[in-house]
């Protein structure tokens, strides 16, 4: 029986505040953050070859545009296993963390 899937996308919303979830961190502190990190690890390691992680540089929240940064978990991925892709016309490059060249799609190749 296969342990996971060959390749696929993880749920969207890998932005700080969404994943890890701000409420989990507010209510449970470090324990909540570690549980969110555990969920990220499980999702990534279920992929046998390729896991696609996406995040939005801008998102509408209650009718207002909100800028966001990629999840802190993206920074914890080994850089040699990450390929950054930027959709045409994207302005995400100005919002990503320094070691990301530009992008809104993260790929972790196991």
TrEMBL record:
The keyword ATP-binding applies. Keywords: ATP-binding, Helicase, Hydrolase, Nucleotide-binding. GO terms for cellular component: cytosol; DNA helicase complex. One of its GO terms (molecular function) is DNA binding. The keyword Nucleotide-binding applies. SUPFAM superfamilies: P-loop containing nucleoside triphosphate hydrolases. One of its GO terms (biological process) is recombinational repair. InterPro entries: DNA_helicase_UvrD-like_C (IPR014017), DNA_helicase_UvrD/REP (IPR000212), P-loop_NTPase (IPR027417). Residues 13-55 form the UvrD-like helicase C-terminal domain. This is DNA helicase II. The lineage of its organism: unclassified sequences, metagenomes, ecological metagenomes.
């Amino acid at each position: 029986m296969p342990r996971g899937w060959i390749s696929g996308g993880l749920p969207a919303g890998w932005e700080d505040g969404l994943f890890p979830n701000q409420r989990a961190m507010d209510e449970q502190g470090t324990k909540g953050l570690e549980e969110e990190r555990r969920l990220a690890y499980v999702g990534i390691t279920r992929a046998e070859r390729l896991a696609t992680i996406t995040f939005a540089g801008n998102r509408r929240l209650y009718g207002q545009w909100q800028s966001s940064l990629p999840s802190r978990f993206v920074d914890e991925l080994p850089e040699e296993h990450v390929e950054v892709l930027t959709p045409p016309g994207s302005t995400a490059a100005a919002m990503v963390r320094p070691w990301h060249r530009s992008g809104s799609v993260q790929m972790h190749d196991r």
